[in-house]
Design brief:
The complex is a heterodimer of chains A (342) and B (707).
Chain A (H helix, E strand, L loop, with lengths): L3 H8 L17 H4 L2 E4 L3 E7 L2 E6 L2 E3 L5 E4 L4 E6 L5 E5 L4 E3 L2 E3 L8 E6 L5 E5 L9 H6 L5 E7 L1 E9 L2 E7 L2 E6 L4 E5 L5 E4 L4 E8 L5 E8 L2 H8 L1 H10 L20 E2 L19 E6 L5 E7 L8 E7 L2 E6 L4 E7 H4 L1
Antiparallel strand pairs in A: 1-25, 2-3, 3-4, 4-5, 6-7, 7-8, 8-9, 10-11, 11-12, 12-13, 14-15, 15-16, 16-17, 18-19, 19-21, 21-22, 23-24, 24-25
Chain B lengths: L2 H12 L3 H7 L7 H17 L6 H26 L7 H18 L4 H25 L4 H29 L5 H8 L1 E2 L2 E2 H19 L1 H11 L1 H6 L4 H27 L10 H11 L11 H20 L4 H34 L31 E3 L10 E3 L5 E4 L4 E5 L7 E6 L3 E7 L5 E6 L2 E5 L5 E5 L18 E6 L5 E5 L11 H5 L4 E7 L4 E9 L2 E6 L5 E6 L4 E6 L8 E5 L4 E8 L5 E8 L2 H7 L2 H10 L6 E2 L6 E5 L5 E6 L11 E5 L2 E5 L6 E5 L9 H6 L4
The chains are: A mainly beta (342), B alpha+beta (707).
GO molecular function (chain B): transmembrane transporter activity
Subcellular location (chain B): Cell membrane
Main location (chain B): membrane
């Protein structure tokens, strides 16, 4: 309508987010999945020395809940080399491979993901140039886009910079596919300009894992929320919030929510007659997406607003079994055979 | 406080933004745009044209205006009935010719000439009406056809008889008076238009045929289903339009004493423009005579003004066309978007800096620290109850509560497993109290203060108070009566939480945070309701102090408890006894040990407290996000707090998991047990209080032992 541009000045544009539809149609697959291992905040899953291990805080834990290895700081990324060496990135910004420290460029202090390519090169995602991995919410609220992706090719080479929190890596023969969390998209990095592979995701993408039969698994660690997107546009409020409100109670995405009455609440999240509505707006959510070989979403596994298996940061498919680390749900799930997961 | 924040506070607390929304809720805002256009038009041409307001100039203009208005009134009625009449121009011309020929050629008396005019108008109107009303042809095409035919007949007649008219020497003082004279300084056409406007207005707004016209225009099918004779009504609107056009034609005949080829040329477009510019909807059903008149003045002033400024007919027609286009666009857009605009601008937040509060986190060591005590309460009516805001027990230990279905449900002692609907009131029964004779008095959300007698008779006690002087929306009506308590003399003290939102939208009041809550008193002796206090942020629970010399009331969104003095040196004044709590207080009730229970309906969150200092952000939030996404105070966690006469906090209980009593809006102590209600809950909770008097009941504390 011809008056819309004029009226928009007075009414402002509505804040919208992509709907959970098509391949993202909600289900309760994550809440229905059996628990594979119970541990506080499992983050990165890898298959190492014949078993699935997960990082949990500063520990590397096996499915039995036993500590396999303890590190000096929180583990923020894991990867297993073709020769079986474990690459470990820590919250203090250090990297070790097979127990030996690896020197990093001075700019790399926020290791969010590690991955070995088919050619054996180690890829590294540096989430932010200014903040450590634990302060990811602040990085989003400051609207930073200072992340970078590196590859070890003799020395470290910067493949791309100016990324908004790269959080997942999927190297292949042609380069690497990286998930860019704050821009809700997957990018292909390689020769030439970064090329968007999948855009307008309904959540913030975390780590990628290759899937048997081509394609990939993508973990989305938090949902997009219209109030949060609105707050991101509200400079004064946002800055005041960052200055005055403890980070746990920010209007920001979270790995888990509803744990304290000091957290923000949205109208739709009100418990009505004892029921917390599954479709209510929420700061945390559980979401795993299966992507086809061309990175188009095929189907997804959900834990909705009233569920608990939220904040999935990593997925691992091994011998037809799908393991899912719900960092906000304090458990690793086993979604059974991947064909059944669908 | 930074300068920016101070400016925001001034901007949002001193500028009454909320009035825009309130004005938009008024029906008369439909008139605002045409009225504005009218003022602008008159002012513009009044200043551009020297002598525009001179009496002589006005006299001639108003004569023309009277005739034109008559036509517009007729067309307005047709449009209100859902039709359109393009034939008014040719009817006007033909009836003018009828009058002229009767008077000059046949030299008949004036009244015969007038009757001939009316007959022509009625005949043409009837043809239109019959074709459109009874044969159900398209109004636009049908009247276009009658317009062309009428015009053709007129042109033939004028050529044939014009010379005979000019040769005639017939005169009449009446004819001259109608055409040229004035009564009380006002010309006959103006009197005629004035009289017809009043009659038509009264007929449309206050008579059965008028309502039928509006009903048919508003929704033909509904009107038919309601038993209205749709076809006849449509028929009559065209006859009416024909008659008014004929009257106007007669008047111009007397004024010009002749009829030329130009008479009534382009009148249909001018009249249509006037009716639409005035704000009458082309779709029918919406509009009024006053709007038609406003449009008539705008169009006439504009066309005459343009002519006097030296512009030709072409310019004039173009201006009319543009005017019509703009008016139709605004009409349609406004009709379609008015409720959207209202939705977007209604929420008008104010600035509030909440005071720093003590922590309520478990283990924080403050008196407010929440625990999980309420989670162990036994559930009463689980799954059967919806929204027991308040609970109360009678002398026989039966338990009563309201529900969101407008019912008062009674659970039978001693185990409270059986229940019945005690009474159906409607609305949303909130606060409850028993009076001395055992009547259950309830504040019913969206309705008012009601009394339910022991034999289930529901009586309205009060639904309004005095209107405040500066209100735009009538604030006499009780919008959200919330809680009450009864003094020993029978006076009922109760709160009306907000003037801005209806009872079911009470949570939205927290976003706006405007102080419109009231404390009122109802006197059963004379049935009067008086406003005691006004301007609190959501007045909520009310409780008489144990000594009955004062009462406590809660101010929810400000997290405060006030004491209002009924006697003593401070009688009639309120003082704040508890401020800056970490939770939002709801109902207050007496405890057996001489202290008081207070319910917390929710908890403050740092992010919401901060948003209260950013009213502009909340305003944009209300506009840009759907309501489900709005930031709310955390009303998923509540609690029960005990405080004493001095406002000291003694004990706090909560249900942190939120499984059974997420939100608490009321609690009532009875024989050593505490009964807990919640407006969004599906149960009433009950648990034994340690150290409470096992014999104490509210009934006895208020009204003594049963006789």
């Amino acid at each position: 309508m011809i008056f819309d541009p004029i009226l928009d000045i007075f009414r402002g544009k509505a804040v919208t987010i992509p709907p959970l539809d098509g391949a993202f149609r909600p289900n309760t697959a994550l809440d229905d999945a059996p628990v594979f291992a119970q541990m506080p905040a499992p983050d990165n899953l890898v298959f190492w020395q014949g078993r699935v291990v997960a990082s949990s805080g500063a520990n590397l834990m096996d499915p039995g809940g036993d500590v396999v290895q303890r590190f000096g700081a929180d583990v923020t990324a894991l990867a297993v080399s073709p020769t079986g060496d474990l690459a470990v990135g820590l919250a203090d910004g250090s990297l070790s491979v097979g127990g030996a420290a690896v020197a990093l460029p001075a700019d790399v202090r926020c290791i969010t993901a590690l991955a070995y390519g088919p050619d054996g090169r180690l890829w590294l995602a540096n989430g932010s140039a200014s903040l450590p991995p634990g302060q990811w919410a602040a990085d989003l609220m400051m609207k930073n886009a200072s992340g970078s992706v590196w590859v070890q090719d003799g020395g470290w080479q910067k493949v791309a910079g100016g990324l908004a929190w790269p959080y997942g890596l999927l190297p292949d023969a042609a380069g690497v596919i990286v998930s860019e969390a704050w821009r809700h998209r997957l990018l292909r990095l390689g020769q030439g300009k970064p090329q968007p592979m999948l855009e307008s995701l309904p959540g913030y993408p975390a780590r990628l894992a290759s899937a048997a039969g081509g394609g990939a698994w993508l973990a989305l660690f938090a949902p997009r929320n219209r109030l949060i997107e609105f707050v991101l546009q509200e400079t004064h409020y946002r800055l005041a919030m960052m200055a005055e409100v403890p980070p746990a109670f920010w209007i920001a995405p979270a790995l888990a929510s509803g744990r304290s009455f000091l957290e923000p609440l949205q109208c739709g999240g009100i418990r009505m007659l004892g029921v917390h509505k599954a479709w209510s707006p929420t700061r945390s959510y559980g979401l795993v997406v299966r992507l086809g070989a061309d990175m188009t979403p095929l189907f997804s596994l959900h834990s909705r607003a009233n569920g608990t298996r939220h904040g999935v940061t990593s997925v691992l498919e091994h011998q037809g079994q799908l393991h899912i680390a719900a960092k906000g749900g304090d458990c690793v799930l086993s979604a059974g055979h991947t064909a059944e997961a669908r | 406080m930074t300068l920016r924040e101070r400016l925001q506070a001034w901007r949002y607390n001193l500028v009454p933004d909320h009035l825009i929304g309130e004005i938009l809720t008024k029906r008369w805002t439909d008139n605002a745009i045409p009225f504005l256009a009218l003022v602008v038009t008159v002012a513009t041409f009044g200043t551009l044209i020297p002598g525009f307001f001179k009496p002589l100039s006005l006299q001639e203009s108003t004569r023309q205006l009277g005739e034109f208005s008559l036509v517009v009134i007729g067309l307005t009625v047709v449009m209100l009935g859902g039709g359109i009449d393009l034939a008014v121009g040719s009817i006007f011309a033909l009836s003018a010719f009828a009058a002229v020929s009767c008077f000059f050629i046949f030299e008949l008396p004036v009244w015969v000439a007038f009757a001939a005019s009316l007959a022509v108008g009625a005949a043409f109107g009837a043809i239109n009406g019959y074709l459109i009303g009874y044969l159900r042809l398209r109004a636009f095409l049908t009247t276009l056809v009658t317009f062309i035919i009428g015009r053709a007949i007129y042109d033939i007649l004028v050529v044939a008889f014009a010379s005979r008219v000019q040769m005639s020497s017939a005169t009449s003082p009446i004819w001259d008076f109608i055409g040229d004279g004035t009564a009380l300084g006002i010309s006959v056409p103006v009197w005629a238009a004035f009289g017809l406007a009043i009659v038509t207005h009264i007929a449309l707004t206050r008579s059965r045929p008028g309502w039928h016209v509006l009903a048919v225009g508003g929704s033909r099918r509904s009107a038919y289903n309601a038993g209205i004779k749709v076809r006849r009504t449509v028929f009559l609107t065209y006859v009416f339009s024909g008659l008014t056009a004929a009257t106007a034609g007669f008047l111009i005949a007397t004024r010009l004493s002749g009829a030329g080829p130009g008479t009534g040329q382009g009148l249909e477009i001018a009249a249509l423009t006037a009716a639409v510019v005035g704000g009458n909807s082309l779709g029918g059903g919406r509009g009024s005579v006053a709007k038609g008149l406003m449009g008539a003045i705008i169009v006439l002033v504009m066309t005459n003004g343009l002519i006097r400024l030296g512009y030709g007919t072409g310019t004039n027609q173009m201006v009319l066309g543009l005017l019509l286009a703009v008016a139709v666009t605004i009409d349609i857009r406004w009709l379609k978007n008015r409720h959207k605009v209202l939705n977007e601008v209604y929420v008008a937040p104010v600035y509030l800096a909440m005071g720093p509060t003590q922590s309520a986190e478990p283990g924080s060591g403050t008196p407010y620290a929440l625990n999980n005590r309420l989670s162990v309460a036994d559930a009463i009516g689980l799954g059967a109850l919806e929204g027991p805001e308040d609970v109360i027990l009678d002398a026989d230990d039966h338990l009563y509560c309201g529900t969101r279905h407008g019912e008062i449900v009674r659970f039978f002692a001693p185990d409270y497993t059986r229940s019945e609907v005690f009474a159906h009131v409607g609305g949303f029964p909130l606060g409850l109290a028993f009076d001395a004779s055992g009547n259950l008095i309830s504040c019913v959300g969206a309705m008012g203060l009601y009394s339910i007698s022991p034999d289930r008779q529901v009586t309205k006690l009060s639904a309004e108070t005095a209107r405040s002087l500066t209100s735009i929306v009538d604030d006499a009506r009780l919008r959200d009566p919330n809680d009450l308590d009864i003094a020993p003399d029978g006076k009922i003290y109760f709160t009306d939480s907000t003037k801005r939102y209806d009872a079911h939208d009470w949570t939205l009041d927290s976003i706006e945070n405007r102080a419109t809550g009231r404390l009122l008193v109802f006197d059963p002796k004379d049935g009067s309701t008086k406003t005691l206090l006004d301007g609190y942020r959501y007045t909520n629970g009310v409780c008489m102090a144990h000594d009955n010399k004062s009462l406590f009331f809660a101010e929810s969104w400000a997290c405060r408890i006030h004491r209002y003095w009924l006697e003593g040196p401070k009688a009639g004044t309120a003082e704040c006894v508890i401020r800056d709590m970490p939770g939002y207080p709801d109902n207050i009730n007496r405890a057996s040990d001489g202290t008081y229970w207070m319910a917390w309906l929710g908890m403050r969150t740092p992010s919401f407290d901060l948003s209260l200092r950013h009213p502009a952000m909340r305003k944009r939030m209300a506009r840009r996000l759907p309501q489900d996404e709005w930031l709310f105070p955390n009303i998923n966690t509540g609690g029960v707090v005990k405080f004493d006469e001095q406002g000291r906090i003694i004990q706090t209980m909560g249900d942190l998991g939120g499984a059974s009593h997420a939100m608490v809006t009321s609690m009532r102590e009875h024989k050593g047990q505490l009964f807990i209600g919640g407006i969004f809950n599906n149960r009433i909770g009950r648990f034994a209080i340690e150290g409470a008097d096992p014999d104490w009941t509210g009934m006895r504390a208020y009204w003594g032992a049963k006789p």
